[in-house]
Specification:
Layout lengths: L1 H30 L10 H16 L2 H23 L7 H40 L2 H7 L4 H40 L3 H11 L2 H27 L5 H33 L4
């Protein structure tokens, strides 16, 4: 009987977590207009700009290096099999479609989760430990609007931009491989790439990236708001934020891929 009670407790905790995450998401969504330059407050917009630099610009070198490595690896693995059938040209399709649909959004989300998601949790967790969040509430300032909303808006803008750059770097890695293996020029390679992908491939990847951005910000901030105790609690929250956001990103990727497959969107 204790086993069933433990299982029930786990399910209740997980459902409560999802419910809290949903409530925080809607609160953050309603707070977004206050971040905009025209309808919002000046200080909030400047905070969102700083978050864009931290989430997007600072992450670009790491994403570029990962995309180049992943693109070259994908081309090598694909060529190892396709060469046997005299179909080396289809390596271009593999790299281009693979990055625009799947690898670009997923690699970007993993990098942002490790860099920014953990930083969000640590920052808010430290504010909880030092009672800064309580001080904001005392001054009639909503912590969701003051702390979460700038990060949310910045991620919604920058993660799709990083995804596009990840796609570009990954496809360029394929160009390097094709030049080394077949002496194919960049112009010919680019023409083949544009023949391979269509606009809905890029759009499906951008839809995923927006969902991934929301997951990373909401999970990272929620883990920070849940911190109780001292520095050890902040460390545990940071670890939990990265693990949970990465898991939910992969789960969301599975969901979107299944939806696109069943509806024939990517066919």
């Amino acid at each position: 009987m204790n086993v069933f009670e433990d299982i029930g407790d786990v399910f209740i905790q997980q459902f409560a977590y999802v419910g809290g995450l949903s409530g925080q998401f809607w609160s953050g969504l309603l707070a977004l207009p206050s971040m905009l330059p025209i309808t919002g407050k000046r200080g909030r917009w400047q905070s969102a700009i700083r978050q864009m630099a931290a989430i997007g610009v600072a992450a670009l070198p790491m994403i570029g290096i990962m995309a180049l490595c992943a693109g070259f690896i994908l081309a090598l693995q694909g060529a190892a099999e396709l060469r046997r059938f005299g179909a080396l040209r289809y390596v271009i399709d593999l790299v281009a479609i693979g990055f625009t649909r799947e690898l670009g959004p997923l690699l970007t989300a993993i990098v942002v989760s490790g860099r920014s998601g953990s930083a969000f949790s640590a920052e808010i967790g430290t504010m909880m430990v030092t009672n800064e969040i309580d001080a904001l509430r005392t001054m009639a300032l909503d912590p969701i609007e003051f702390v979460l909303a700038p990060k949310f808006l910045a991620a919604l803008i920058m993660v799709p931009c990083l995804t596009i750059m990840c796609n570009v770097f990954g496809i360029l890695a394929g160009a390097g491989f094709m030049y080394l293996s077949t002496k194919m020029t960049l112009g010919v390679y680019v023409r083949y790439v544009f023949d391979s992908i269509v606009l809905r491939d890029v759009f499906s990847g951008l839809v995923k990236s927006v969902a991934f951005a929301a997951i990373i910000v909401q999970v990272g901030c929620m883990e920070g708001f849940k911190v109780r105790g001292g520095p050890e609690a902040v460390g545990r929250a940071t670890t939990s934020a990265v693990v949970k956001s990465t898991f939910l990103v992969i789960l969301a990727d599975l969901f979107f891929t299944a939806i696109f497959y069943l509806t024939g969107w990517n066919s």
